[in-house]
Amino acid sequence: MLNRKSVTLACFAVLAAFSLTAAPKFTAESAQINFAQGNWATDPAKLCEVANETLLYLNKGAEYDANAIHGGKVKGASFPLARVKATLLYICELAKTNPKALTDPSFIANNFELVRWYPDVAGAQKLAKNKPLLANIPNDQILQTKYYVRIADGSKVKQASHPQALYGLPFDEAKLPLAEADALGSKITRFQLGKQQIVKGALEQQPLRAPALVWLSREDLEGALLQGTAVVPNGNKYRYYNVHRTNGIPYDRKIAPELQQRYWYFKEVKSVLGYGKDADYKIPIQPEVTVAGDIPQLGLGKLILLATKEHGTITYRLTVLADTGGAFANNLYQLDWLSGYYRGWDDYYAANKHRADYSSSWILVKK
User: Fold this and answer.
1) pTM (2 decimals)?
2) Cα separation, 299 vs 352, whole angstroms
3) Same domain as 259, residue 162
4) Cα–Cα distances in Å, from 85 out to 53, 61, 113, 313?
5) What's the CATH code of the domain at 95?
6) Range of 234's domain?
7) In terms of domains, do 156 and 225 share one?
8) What share of the chain is helix, strand, coil (3-state, %, to 5)?
9) How far apart are CA 117 and CA 77, in angstroms?
10) Which of 50, 160, 326, 342 is least surrounded, with the fewest CB atoms within 10 Å of its CB?
11) pLDDT (tens digit, 9 = 90+) per residue, 334-356?
Protein backbone atom coordinates (compact mmCIF):
# COMPACT_ATOMS: atom_id res chain seq x y z
CA MET A 1 0.00 0.00 0.00
CA LEU A 2 1.37 3.39 0.91
CA ASN A 3 2.20 5.97 3.39
CA ARG A 4 -0.35 7.15 5.92
CA LYS A 5 -1.39 10.14 8.00
CA SER A 6 -0.85 9.11 11.58
CA VAL A 7 -1.04 10.28 15.11
CA THR A 8 1.44 8.16 17.00
CA LEU A 9 1.33 6.00 20.02
CA ALA A 10 3.53 4.67 22.62
CA CYS A 11 4.77 2.60 25.37
CA PHE A 12 6.77 1.55 28.23
CA ALA A 13 9.70 -0.07 29.99
CA VAL A 14 13.42 -0.15 29.44
CA LEU A 15 15.40 -3.39 29.72
CA ALA A 16 18.02 -2.92 32.42
CA ALA A 17 20.78 -4.70 30.57
CA PHE A 18 20.14 -3.06 27.24
CA SER A 19 23.25 -1.62 25.61
CA LEU A 20 22.49 1.61 23.78
CA THR A 21 22.85 1.12 20.05
CA ALA A 22 21.49 3.00 17.07
CA ALA A 23 21.21 -0.02 14.79
CA PRO A 24 18.11 -2.26 14.68
CA LYS A 25 18.39 -5.25 16.96
CA PHE A 26 16.20 -8.29 17.56
CA THR A 27 16.97 -10.18 20.76
CA ALA A 28 15.41 -13.39 22.06
CA GLU A 29 13.85 -12.90 25.49
CA SER A 30 14.50 -15.08 28.48
CA ALA A 31 12.09 -17.97 28.95
CA GLN A 32 11.22 -16.37 32.31
CA ILE A 33 10.02 -13.04 30.91
CA ASN A 34 7.59 -11.19 33.13
CA PHE A 35 5.44 -8.58 31.45
CA ALA A 36 4.84 -5.31 33.26
CA GLN A 37 1.35 -4.97 34.71
CA GLY A 38 -1.19 -3.68 32.21
CA ASN A 39 -4.34 -4.36 30.21
CA TRP A 40 -4.56 -7.03 27.49
CA ALA A 41 -6.98 -5.91 24.79
CA THR A 42 -6.78 -8.35 21.86
CA ASP A 43 -10.01 -9.39 20.11
CA PRO A 44 -9.40 -13.13 19.45
CA ALA A 45 -11.99 -13.46 16.67
CA LYS A 46 -10.64 -10.49 14.70
CA LEU A 47 -7.06 -11.64 15.23
CA CYS A 48 -7.93 -15.09 13.90
CA GLU A 49 -9.66 -13.62 10.87
CA VAL A 50 -6.56 -11.66 9.86
CA ALA A 51 -4.26 -14.56 10.74
CA ASN A 52 -6.28 -16.96 8.58
CA GLU A 53 -6.47 -14.61 5.58
CA THR A 54 -2.72 -13.95 5.84
CA LEU A 55 -2.03 -17.68 6.00
CA LEU A 56 -4.01 -18.20 2.80
CA TYR A 57 -1.76 -15.65 1.09
CA LEU A 58 1.40 -17.28 2.47
CA ASN A 59 0.22 -20.64 1.16
CA LYS A 60 0.49 -19.33 -2.40
CA GLY A 61 4.24 -19.79 -2.01
CA ALA A 62 7.37 -17.74 -2.58
CA GLU A 63 7.16 -18.29 -6.33
CA TYR A 64 4.00 -16.14 -6.26
CA ASP A 65 5.43 -13.29 -4.14
CA ALA A 66 9.03 -13.73 -3.05
CA ASN A 67 9.13 -10.16 -1.78
CA ALA A 68 6.69 -10.97 1.04
CA ILE A 69 6.44 -14.75 1.43
CA HIS A 70 9.51 -15.62 3.47
CA GLY A 71 10.42 -16.04 7.12
CA GLY A 72 12.34 -12.78 7.44
CA LYS A 73 15.64 -11.39 6.21
CA VAL A 74 16.83 -9.61 9.34
CA LYS A 75 19.25 -11.17 11.82
CA GLY A 76 17.38 -12.23 14.94
CA ALA A 77 13.94 -11.82 13.35
CA SER A 78 14.14 -14.59 10.75
CA PHE A 79 12.41 -17.93 11.19
CA PRO A 80 11.53 -20.83 8.90
CA LEU A 81 8.37 -19.91 7.03
CA ALA A 82 6.79 -23.11 8.37
CA ARG A 83 7.03 -21.69 11.92
CA VAL A 84 5.39 -18.43 10.85
CA LYS A 85 2.51 -20.42 9.34
CA ALA A 86 2.25 -22.67 12.40
CA THR A 87 1.99 -19.61 14.62
CA LEU A 88 -0.92 -18.23 12.60
CA LEU A 89 -2.67 -21.60 12.71
CA TYR A 90 -2.14 -21.74 16.46
CA ILE A 91 -3.67 -18.28 16.89
CA CYS A 92 -6.89 -19.45 15.23
CA GLU A 93 -6.93 -22.68 17.21
CA LEU A 94 -6.71 -20.69 20.45
CA ALA A 95 -9.31 -18.16 19.29
CA LYS A 96 -11.79 -20.98 18.80
CA THR A 97 -10.95 -23.24 21.76
CA ASN A 98 -9.30 -21.06 24.41
CA PRO A 99 -9.71 -17.35 23.53
CA LYS A 100 -8.74 -16.15 27.00
CA ALA A 101 -5.25 -17.52 26.40
CA LEU A 102 -4.59 -14.69 23.94
CA THR A 103 -4.99 -12.14 26.72
CA ASP A 104 -3.14 -14.16 29.39
CA PRO A 105 0.45 -12.91 29.87
CA SER A 106 1.59 -16.15 31.52
CA PHE A 107 0.24 -18.23 28.64
CA ILE A 108 1.90 -15.95 26.10
CA ALA A 109 5.25 -16.16 27.90
CA ASN A 110 5.09 -19.95 28.25
CA ASN A 111 3.85 -20.87 24.78
CA PHE A 112 5.58 -18.43 22.46
CA GLU A 113 9.17 -17.60 21.72
CA LEU A 114 9.47 -13.83 22.08
CA VAL A 115 11.99 -11.67 20.24
CA ARG A 116 12.32 -8.09 21.45
CA TRP A 117 12.60 -5.46 18.71
CA TYR A 118 14.94 -2.50 19.24
CA PRO A 119 14.51 0.17 16.53
CA ASP A 120 16.85 1.41 13.83
CA VAL A 121 17.42 4.79 15.46
CA ALA A 122 20.25 5.63 13.06
CA GLY A 123 17.95 5.08 10.07
CA ALA A 124 15.25 7.26 11.65
CA GLN A 125 17.72 10.07 12.34
CA LYS A 126 18.52 10.36 8.64
CA LEU A 127 14.91 11.48 8.07
CA ALA A 128 14.38 13.31 11.36
CA LYS A 129 14.81 16.93 10.24
CA ASN A 130 11.69 18.84 11.36
CA LYS A 131 10.14 15.52 12.44
CA PRO A 132 10.28 15.34 16.25
CA LEU A 133 8.65 11.92 16.44
CA LEU A 134 11.55 10.48 14.44
CA ALA A 135 14.14 12.59 16.23
CA ASN A 136 12.96 11.37 19.63
CA ILE A 137 12.62 7.61 19.03
CA PRO A 138 13.90 5.83 22.16
CA ASN A 139 16.55 3.15 21.81
CA ASP A 140 14.19 0.51 23.21
CA GLN A 141 10.82 1.39 21.64
CA ILE A 142 9.63 1.58 18.05
CA LEU A 143 7.65 4.47 16.62
CA GLN A 144 4.07 3.22 16.54
CA THR A 145 2.05 5.38 14.23
CA LYS A 146 -1.59 4.72 13.44
CA TYR A 147 -3.64 4.69 10.30
CA TYR A 148 -7.34 4.51 9.73
CA VAL A 149 -9.89 3.80 7.05
CA ARG A 150 -11.40 7.06 5.93
CA ILE A 151 -15.15 7.31 5.41
CA ALA A 152 -15.53 9.69 2.47
CA ASP A 153 -18.50 11.39 0.87
CA GLY A 154 -18.64 10.54 -2.82
CA SER A 155 -20.45 11.67 -5.95
CA LYS A 156 -21.17 9.86 -9.20
CA VAL A 157 -20.34 13.03 -11.13
CA LYS A 158 -17.82 15.84 -10.80
CA GLN A 159 -19.04 18.75 -8.69
CA ALA A 160 -17.48 21.86 -7.20
CA SER A 161 -17.49 20.09 -3.84
CA HIS A 162 -16.18 16.84 -5.39
CA PRO A 163 -13.58 17.89 -8.00
CA GLN A 164 -11.20 14.92 -7.78
CA ALA A 165 -11.77 11.35 -8.97
CA LEU A 166 -10.53 8.04 -7.74
CA TYR A 167 -9.47 6.52 -11.04
CA GLY A 168 -9.68 2.88 -11.94
CA LEU A 169 -6.98 1.15 -13.94
CA PRO A 170 -6.35 2.88 -17.29
CA PHE A 171 -8.08 1.31 -20.27
CA ASP A 172 -4.81 0.38 -21.98
CA GLU A 173 -3.97 -2.19 -19.29
CA ALA A 174 -7.34 -3.03 -17.77
CA LYS A 175 -7.23 -6.61 -19.11
CA LEU A 176 -3.49 -7.22 -18.58
CA PRO A 177 -1.92 -9.14 -15.68
CA LEU A 178 0.39 -7.02 -13.52
CA ALA A 179 3.67 -8.45 -14.82
CA GLU A 180 2.59 -8.06 -18.45
CA ALA A 181 1.48 -4.48 -17.88
CA ASP A 182 4.64 -3.55 -15.97
CA ALA A 183 6.77 -4.88 -18.81
CA LEU A 184 5.27 -2.24 -21.13
CA GLY A 185 6.73 0.56 -19.00
CA SER A 186 6.20 4.08 -20.33
CA LYS A 187 4.14 2.80 -23.26
CA ILE A 188 1.07 2.70 -20.99
CA THR A 189 -0.80 5.52 -19.26
CA ARG A 190 0.00 4.45 -15.72
CA PHE A 191 3.71 5.20 -16.11
CA GLN A 192 3.24 8.42 -18.08
CA LEU A 193 1.65 10.66 -15.47
CA GLY A 194 2.59 11.90 -12.02
CA LYS A 195 0.10 12.78 -9.31
CA GLN A 196 0.41 16.53 -9.86
CA GLN A 197 -0.60 16.18 -13.51
CA ILE A 198 -3.57 14.00 -12.59
CA VAL A 199 -4.98 16.30 -9.90
CA LYS A 200 -4.77 19.16 -12.44
CA GLY A 201 -7.03 17.21 -14.80
CA ALA A 202 -4.76 15.20 -17.12
CA LEU A 203 -7.11 12.21 -17.05
CA GLU A 204 -10.18 14.34 -17.74
CA GLN A 205 -9.00 15.18 -21.24
CA GLN A 206 -10.60 13.48 -24.25
CA PRO A 207 -10.20 10.73 -25.20
CA LEU A 208 -10.58 9.47 -21.64
CA ARG A 209 -7.78 7.16 -20.59
CA ALA A 210 -9.13 5.83 -17.27
CA PRO A 211 -12.55 5.42 -15.62
CA ALA A 212 -13.59 7.73 -12.78
CA LEU A 213 -14.85 5.35 -10.08
CA VAL A 214 -16.14 8.05 -7.73
CA TRP A 215 -15.64 11.80 -7.32
CA LEU A 216 -14.30 13.14 -4.00
CA SER A 217 -13.23 16.35 -2.34
CA ARG A 218 -9.50 17.06 -2.56
CA GLU A 219 -9.22 16.33 1.16
CA ASP A 220 -10.89 12.94 0.75
CA LEU A 221 -8.68 12.15 -2.25
CA GLU A 222 -5.56 12.85 -0.21
CA GLY A 223 -6.93 10.69 2.57
CA ALA A 224 -7.63 7.82 0.18
CA LEU A 225 -4.17 8.02 -1.40
CA LEU A 226 -2.53 8.21 2.00
CA GLN A 227 -4.60 5.47 3.64
CA GLY A 228 -4.87 3.21 0.59
CA THR A 229 -8.61 2.81 1.05
CA ALA A 230 -11.78 4.85 0.70
CA VAL A 231 -15.11 3.82 2.19
CA VAL A 232 -18.06 5.65 0.63
CA PRO A 233 -21.61 5.50 2.05
CA ASN A 234 -24.12 4.04 -0.41
CA GLY A 235 -27.59 4.09 1.07
CA ASN A 236 -27.43 2.03 4.27
CA LYS A 237 -24.29 0.21 3.09
CA TYR A 238 -20.77 1.12 2.02
CA ARG A 239 -18.76 0.86 -1.18
CA TYR A 240 -15.08 0.04 -0.70
CA TYR A 241 -12.22 1.20 -2.90
CA ASN A 242 -8.67 -0.07 -2.50
CA VAL A 243 -5.39 0.78 -4.20
CA HIS A 244 -4.78 -1.34 -7.30
CA ARG A 245 -1.58 -0.36 -9.13
CA THR A 246 0.89 2.51 -8.76
CA ASN A 247 2.61 4.74 -11.30
CA GLY A 248 5.97 3.47 -10.08
CA ILE A 249 7.21 6.74 -8.60
CA PRO A 250 8.59 6.20 -5.07
CA TYR A 251 7.01 7.96 -2.12
CA ASP A 252 9.29 10.80 -1.00
CA ARG A 253 9.27 11.04 2.79
CA LYS A 254 10.97 14.44 2.64
CA ILE A 255 7.97 16.26 1.12
CA ALA A 256 4.33 16.73 2.12
CA PRO A 257 1.75 14.12 1.02
CA GLU A 258 -0.18 16.54 -1.20
CA LEU A 259 3.00 17.38 -3.14
CA GLN A 260 3.92 13.78 -3.95
CA GLN A 261 4.24 12.47 -7.51
CA ARG A 262 3.47 8.88 -6.51
CA TYR A 263 -0.08 8.01 -7.54
CA TRP A 264 -2.34 5.02 -7.07
CA TYR A 265 -5.14 3.77 -9.30
CA PHE A 266 -7.99 2.14 -7.39
CA LYS A 267 -10.36 -0.79 -7.68
CA GLU A 268 -13.76 -1.36 -6.09
CA VAL A 269 -13.57 -4.28 -3.67
CA LYS A 270 -15.84 -6.09 -1.20
CA SER A 271 -14.06 -5.10 2.03
CA VAL A 272 -11.09 -3.23 3.49
CA LEU A 273 -7.89 -4.83 2.23
CA GLY A 274 -4.25 -4.88 3.31
CA TYR A 275 -1.16 -6.29 1.63
CA GLY A 276 -1.15 -7.92 -1.79
CA LYS A 277 1.08 -7.49 -4.79
CA ASP A 278 -1.97 -6.80 -6.96
CA ALA A 279 -5.59 -5.89 -6.26
CA ASP A 280 -6.71 -9.25 -7.62
CA TYR A 281 -5.54 -10.79 -4.36
CA LYS A 282 -5.11 -8.70 -1.23
CA ILE A 283 -5.52 -9.67 2.40
CA PRO A 284 -8.76 -8.63 4.16
CA ILE A 285 -7.81 -6.86 7.39
CA GLN A 286 -9.48 -5.81 10.64
CA PRO A 287 -8.94 -2.80 12.95
CA GLU A 288 -6.85 -3.11 16.12
CA VAL A 289 -5.26 -6.45 15.13
CA THR A 290 -3.45 -5.38 11.95
CA VAL A 291 -0.14 -3.56 11.57
CA ALA A 292 1.69 -2.28 8.51
CA GLY A 293 5.47 -2.44 8.34
CA ASP A 294 8.55 -3.39 6.36
CA ILE A 295 7.28 -6.68 4.92
CA PRO A 296 10.23 -7.15 2.51
CA GLN A 297 12.61 -7.28 5.49
CA LEU A 298 10.43 -8.74 8.26
CA GLY A 299 8.29 -11.10 6.19
CA LEU A 300 4.52 -11.18 5.84
CA GLY A 301 2.46 -12.67 8.65
CA LYS A 302 4.67 -12.07 11.68
CA LEU A 303 2.72 -12.08 14.95
CA ILE A 304 3.71 -8.92 16.83
CA LEU A 305 2.92 -7.97 20.41
CA LEU A 306 2.71 -4.23 21.09
CA ALA A 307 2.81 -2.65 24.54
CA THR A 308 1.53 0.92 24.34
CA LYS A 309 0.38 3.40 26.96
CA GLU A 310 -3.32 4.13 26.53
CA HIS A 311 -4.98 6.47 29.01
CA GLY A 312 -1.74 6.26 30.99
CA THR A 313 -1.84 2.45 31.35
CA ILE A 314 0.22 -0.06 29.41
CA THR A 315 -2.03 -1.92 26.96
CA TYR A 316 -0.89 -5.12 25.23
CA ARG A 317 -2.24 -5.99 21.79
CA LEU A 318 -1.46 -8.94 19.53
CA THR A 319 -1.32 -7.96 15.87
CA VAL A 320 -0.48 -9.50 12.50
CA LEU A 321 1.89 -7.85 10.02
CA ALA A 322 -0.50 -7.89 7.06
CA ASP A 323 -0.04 -4.50 5.42
CA THR A 324 2.72 -2.21 4.20
CA GLY A 325 3.25 1.10 2.40
CA GLY A 326 5.75 3.34 0.70
CA ALA A 327 6.93 4.79 4.01
CA PHE A 328 8.16 1.37 5.15
CA ALA A 329 10.91 0.84 2.58
CA ASN A 330 14.05 0.06 4.58
CA ASN A 331 12.22 1.00 7.79
CA LEU A 332 13.01 -1.03 10.90
CA TYR A 333 12.00 1.65 13.39
CA GLN A 334 8.22 1.86 12.88
CA LEU A 335 4.91 0.03 12.64
CA ASP A 336 1.55 1.48 11.65
CA TRP A 337 -1.46 0.21 13.63
CA LEU A 338 -4.89 0.09 11.98
CA SER A 339 -6.99 1.93 14.56
CA GLY A 340 -10.47 1.94 13.01
CA TYR A 341 -12.89 3.61 10.58
CA TYR A 342 -13.49 7.37 10.90
CA ARG A 343 -15.19 10.17 9.00
CA GLY A 344 -12.06 12.31 9.14
CA TRP A 345 -9.08 13.52 11.07
CA ASP A 346 -11.04 15.14 13.92
CA ASP A 347 -12.99 11.95 14.69
CA TYR A 348 -9.84 9.88 14.40
CA TYR A 349 -7.89 12.19 16.69
CA ALA A 350 -10.62 12.29 19.32
CA ALA A 351 -10.67 8.49 19.45
CA ASN A 352 -6.88 8.04 19.56
CA LYS A 353 -5.33 11.05 21.28
CA HIS A 354 -4.97 9.09 24.53
CA ARG A 355 -2.47 6.69 22.94
CA ALA A 356 1.23 7.43 23.26
CA ASP A 357 3.85 7.69 20.50
CA TYR A 358 6.16 4.71 21.00
CA SER A 359 5.73 1.02 21.80
CA SER A 360 7.72 -1.82 23.19
CA SER A 361 7.35 -4.65 20.69
CA TRP A 362 8.04 -8.35 20.33
CA ILE A 363 7.85 -10.80 17.44
CA LEU A 364 6.17 -14.03 18.59
CA VAL A 365 6.46 -17.55 17.20
CA LYS A 366 4.87 -20.68 18.59
CA LYS A 367 7.28 -22.80 20.64
Assistant:
1) 0.76
2) 28
3) yes
4) 11, 12, 14, 32
5) 2.40.40
6) 151-269
7) yes
8) 30, 30, 45
9) 8
10) 160
11) 999 999 988 888 999 999 999 99
